[in-house]
Specification:
heterodimer, A: 114 residues, 5 strands, globular, B: alpha+beta, Heat Shock Protein 90
């Protein structure tokens, strides 16, 4: 299953609903383009909802890191929401769980932005 | 289980990476590995294929990737060979070091080592040979890794 993304606004926060696989190639590019497009339009409070992401490889992990740092460098914040067990485990073993602000409740995630 | 070996010669393309992963998933499932280990094996093979296609052969159309699966005793042995210029493992930084956590690449070999029982990377006649070994559950315990 290839990756799909869609965005919606909730109280000034952009929720990006991702589904499918974030892997080398199309999946990573789709996510990168979406985040860059949001930032270019001034949307700097971003939540990546990964509830439907069933697979991610090292390139996809790198893309999440890139999205995080790109957003931060532009004065924004990017958080992760609803990790599947596979993605959660990968972030744990790569120690990235300590880098990302990970949420498991959308309302709490939206509220957490300053 | 009977001993058997299958091998594939593949192009240096993104399709090869997906195909290698699919083959690994199919074979690991057929061999009876549990679901979580099938995922680990398929991801390790995917990362190995990424290294072969991108970093080894650099998408060169005249260079091939050889992928082989072999069942020997209690092990699934997977070999991925490229025809690239090889890699210097000493130059691959530790992705868990604080200064490297925010790097966007460099986690492939780490993931392979996390998921497989043995990971060997060595130069071959034509490029680099990667060997990944997963013990069939109960056949052996513990983890080992070598370069």
């Amino acid at each position: 299953m290839s990756m799909k993304v869609g965005s919606r606004q909730v109280d000034g926060v952009t929720i990006v609903d991702c589904s499918g696989r974030i892997t080398l190639g199309e999946g990573s590019v789709i996510l990168r383009d979406m985040v860059r497009d949001l930032l270019s339009k001034g949307n700097k409070k971003i939540v990546l909802n990964l509830a439907e992401v069933n697979y991610i490889d090292s390139s996809g992990i790198g893309e999440l890191v890139s999205a995080f740092t790109t957003t931060k460098n532009q004065g924004g914040e990017l958080k992760l929401l609803n990790l599947t067990k596979k993605v959660n485990d990968l972030l744990q073993i790569t120690k990235l769980y300590t880098v990302f602000d990970v949420k498991d409740d959308e309302a709490a995630a939206v509220k957490s932005f300053r | 289980m009977t001993e058997q070996r299958v091998s594939y010669t593949l192009d240096s393309s993104l399709e090869t990476i997906d195909r290698a992963e699919e083959k690994a998933t199919h074979i690991a499932t057929e061999l009876g590995f549990p679901e979580d280990e099938v995922m680990q094996i398929s991801m390790a093979v995917r990362e190995g294929a990424v290294n072969a296609v991108l970093h080894g052969n650099a998408y060169a159309p005249d260079k091939k990737v050889t992928l082989a699966f072999e069942q020997t005793g209690g092990d699934l042995v997977i070999t991925i060979c490229d025809q690239g210029k090889g890699m210097d493992l000493s130059k691959i930084p530790n992705p868990l070091a604080p200064e490297n956590l925010l790097k966007t690449s460099g986690r492939g070999i780490f993931l392979m080592r996390s998921f497989m029982d043995v990971v060997e990377i060595r130069p071959s006649q034509a490029g680099t040979e990667l060997k990944l070994i997963k013990h069939v559950r109960g056949a052996a315990g513990g983890k080992e890794a070598s370069q």
